[in-house]
């Protein structure tokens, strides 16, 4: 049915049913759009923050270990670098850039990969009464919450970004043989001291139960372009701590490892030495 509407241009026929339908469609589009929050990313800015933070951390650690600089001068130089680190936002800004990077890339949420491997290797069944205890080190959030029926996750970080993550220093934990699995996703490379990186691996041996699992994710460049570390050397390190490699694969930028704790530590030490010659190498290293 149509009515005539008088205007300065004459009579125009308007179909009410059509108007109602157009209005409904418009409202529906508005409602759908309102359900999707708009998150804006600045890829270049986020990458710059992450790169600068890592660089400043390395410089600070190098100064602390330098024996040739007088204490007063060393303290002043470290204070200057720490001030620069705070000017770019400090650890909060670094973690926010990491979180946005995770969202931007769909991201590589390590929990998805870990859960996939746990199921693939039949590590735990959801029907079992005892939950699998996982320690997620350097967590931005509790990404295992959706699997709470069979996973009991303890997400920790030195500087948590929300109340779902516990504030704790991984190297200070005393929960010996208390975890079925530990996840170190892009955490070892964040530590600037190569000796502490080795301590992190030793700590995993202390905290993981026999036959438990260790998941490690590293930037591919740490293993493919390092002067002091390659995959074989890294696997040998973990082997000396009683871990047997179950899985190792690489993406375009990351390297993934799944280890199983199968034996006692051998006590073998691994020093910093050149395993790959040539120019344009990075200096990533781990000492055990």
Automatic annotation (TrEMBL):
GO terms for molecular function: rRNA (adenine) methyltransferase activity. The keyword Translocase does not apply. S-adenosyl-L-methionine-binding protein that acts as an inhibitor of mTORC1 signaling. Acts as a sensor of S-adenosyl-L-methionine to signal methionine sufficiency to mTORC1. Probably also acts as a S-adenosyl-L-methionine-dependent methyltransferase. PANTHER family: 25S RRNA (ADENINE(2142)-N(1))-METHYLTRANSFERASE, S-ADENOSYLMETHIONINE SENSOR UPSTREAM OF MTORC1-RELATED. S-adenosyl-L-methionine binds at residues 138, 157. Its EC number is 2.1.1.-. The keyword Methyltransferase applies. Residues 15-35 are annotated as: Disordered. This is S-adenosylmethionine sensor upstream of mTORC1. Belongs to the BMT2 family. Keywords: Methyltransferase, S-adenosyl-L-methionine, Transferase. Residues 26-35 have a biased composition (Basic residues). InterPro entries: Bmt2/SAMTOR, SAM-dependent_MTases_sf. GO terms for cellular component: nucleolus.
């Amino acid at each position: 049915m149509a009515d005539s509407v008088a205007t300065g241009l004459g009579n125009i026929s308007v179909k009410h049913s059509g108007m109602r339908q157009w209005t409904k469609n418009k409202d529906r589009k508005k409602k759908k759009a309102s359900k999707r929050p708009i998150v804006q990313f600045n890829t270049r800015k986020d990458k710059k923050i992450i790169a600068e933070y890592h660089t400043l951390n390395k410089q600070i650690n190098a100064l602390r270990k330098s024996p040739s600089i007088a204490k007063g001068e060393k303290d002043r130089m470290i204070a200057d670098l720490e001030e620069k680190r705070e000017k770019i936002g400090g650890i909060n800004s670094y973690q926010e850039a990491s979180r946005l990077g995770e969202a931007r890339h769909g991201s590589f949420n390590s929990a998805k990969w870990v859960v996939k491997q746990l199921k693939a290797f039949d590590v735990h069944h959801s029907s079992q009464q005892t939950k699998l205890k996982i320690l997620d080190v350097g967590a931005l959030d509790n990404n295992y919450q959706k699997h709470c029926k069979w996973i009991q996750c303890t997400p920790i970080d030195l500087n948590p970004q929300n109340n779902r993550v516990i504030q704790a220093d991984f190297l200070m934990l005393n929960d010996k043989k208390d975890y079925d699995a530990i996840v170190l996703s892009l955490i070892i490379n964040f530590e600037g001291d190569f000796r502490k990186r080795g301590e992190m691996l030793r700590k995993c041996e202390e905290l993981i139960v026999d036959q438990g699992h260790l998941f490690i994710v590293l930037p591919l460049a740490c293993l493919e372009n390092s002067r002091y570390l390659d995959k074989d050397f890294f696997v040998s390190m973990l082997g000396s701590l009683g871990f047997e490699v179950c899985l190792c694969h690489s993406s375009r930028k990351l390297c993934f490892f799944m280890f199983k704790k199968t034996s006692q530590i051998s006590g073998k030490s691994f020093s910093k030495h050149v395993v790959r010659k040539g120019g344009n190498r990075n200096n990533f290293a781990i000492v055990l």
